[in-house]
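Hello Y.,

Per our agreement to keep a running log of every chain we model this quarter, I'm adding this entry. I've kept the format consistent with earlier entries: sequence first, then predicted structure.
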Amino acid sequence: MRSVTSTRLAASDRPAQELLRSSALLSHLSARARDEVVAATAIEHVPARTMLLREGEPPQWIHLVLEGLVRLFTTAGNRQITLTILRAPTLVPAEMIDLQAPAPVSACTLRRAHLGRIAIADATRLLLREREFAGLAQRQLAAHWRDLLCEVKSLRAHTSFQRLVAWILAMHRLGSGPIDLPYDKSVLAARLGMAPETLSRDFARLSSLGVSVKGRRLDIADPRLLETLAGFAGASLPPVP
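Predicted structure for the entry above:
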């Protein structure tokens, strides 16, 4: 996997600066605080499979994910175990309040992504001097903690088939039409904590619930029927994608 280095935004790079200033990630910050963050940030597009964190190593950057998806995973022997997938806008690592600690997990982009980066020394300065930036870090940490609790609850309380149905229902609520898988089925299987062959069997079972699967596209004939038969309320649906 590819790692990257960056340089700060040049004062003349106005499009990149405005993209960062207008990001929903910084929407709670005052204009002054946003200027402080922009001044400390490098920004660029990176390809899929770019490493952002390596498990066991202290982070070198705080990543402001403006567009794209990030996979958090751990390694056991020769296997990579997906823990969750984060969607933009988000901070990686969310546990940036303790910047000297080694990363508990690895993180990489799932597809081409638009990132801002703040060097650890600058992030430390911002956390100490900018109360609004510290508040941003706290909100992101709380959001990640909430999503991870939902993931653990789903893994402990539901079967693999129920987890797949819940994920489909949650994705359907993002739009009203067919669902295009945001990543490969192998990634989805890892995301839901099942083997790829189990995912294939569970997809086959979905036909009886009015769901057709063609490649990476899912069509749902009656979402309400699917929700009723699966027994899921809205509060039980997982974070997506």
